[in-house]
């Protein structure tokens, strides 16, 4: 009464190449091995690999496109950073520093900087771009 029932099995008749048959018989002759268990394990592993392969085939094209898009975004970011760094370096070399006592010029500089930061924030919020193709919003650039 305490015995558990084995799941029902289906009988198959298989034909194997002779070399594979000899290797299979040698494997099944080892202690604790059975032909049914060997075939069940091999078939389970093969079907598992097929499922993984199908998923890989299904998503590999999409993942490749996403990787290429991310590569372009990274390249564009590097170009923008390098351009900004060169511009800042140029401006710092060309512009004379403001005298410490000239508060009026410093106030104008602060106002211009705040206007610049505000403009960048507005452009980011609206999606408008200063460089590149105009957005579909139809607003001014």
Q: How do the strands and helices of this protein lay out in sequence?
A:
Blueprint: H1 18-28, H2 35-94, H3 103-126
Enumerate the spans where pLDDT stays under 50 for 5 or more consecutive residues: none
- What's the number of extended β-strand segments? 0
Distance between the termini: 84 Å
Strand-residue fraction?
A: under 5%
How would you describe this protein?
There is one protein chain. The longest helix is centred in the middle third of the chain and has 60 residues, at 35-94. The chain has helices spanning 18-28, 35-94, 103-126. Helix content is 67%, strand content 0%. The termini are far apart. It is mainly alpha-helical and 141 residues long. It is rod-shaped, with a radius of gyration of 35 Å. It has 3 helices and no strands.
Give a nutshell description of this structure.
The protein has helices at 18-28, 35-94, 103-126. It is an all-alpha fold.
């Amino acid at each position: 009464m305490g015995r558990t029932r084995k799941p029902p099995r289906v009988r198959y008749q298989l034909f194997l190449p002779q070399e594979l048959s000899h290797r299979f018989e040698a494997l099944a002759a080892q202690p604790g091995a059975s032909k049914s268990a060997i075939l069940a394990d091999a078939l389970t592993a093969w079907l598992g690999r097929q499922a993984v392969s199908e998923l890989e085939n299904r998503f590999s094209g999409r993942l490749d496109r996403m990787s290429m898009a991310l590569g372009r975004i990274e390249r564009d970011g590097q170009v923008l950073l390098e351009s900004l760094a060169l511009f800042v370096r140029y401006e710092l070399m060309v512009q004379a520093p403001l005298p410490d006592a000239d508060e009026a010029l410093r106030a104008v500089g602060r106002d211009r900087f705040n206007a610049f930061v505000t403009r960048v924030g507005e452009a980011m919020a609206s999606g408008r771009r200063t460089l590149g193709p105009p957005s579909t919003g139809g607003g001014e650039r």
